[in-house]
Design goal:
- The longest helix has 12 residues.
- The protein is 46% helix and 22% strand.
- A four-stranded mixed β-sheet has the order 2-1-3-4, sandwiched between helices.
- It has a single domain, classed as Glutaredoxin (3-Layer(aba) Sandwich), CATH 3.40.30.10.
- The radius of gyration is 12 Å and the shape is globular.
- The chain is an alpha+beta fold.
- The termini are close together.
Amino acid sequence: MPKVRMYCTATCPYCMRAERLLKKKGVQVEKLDVSKPADWKAMEKLTHRNTVPQIFIGDFHVGGFDDLSALDMAGKLDKLLSA
């Protein structure tokens, strides 16, 4: 199973929903808190987005919770997680 990283903040409801979905799939999530401005800027530079969560499965940038959920509904998330 590829490593799953999620850039997030402690109070973000979409981060919590993404983590819940991934845990339901049996995935251990490495959470990277971007509450500090320097960490947020580093996330923006890496993802070219300015919202959380930002989720990576291996080297693949999924995007945010809506993107993750869409992959799941399309039946593609399990394939990514098992690669």
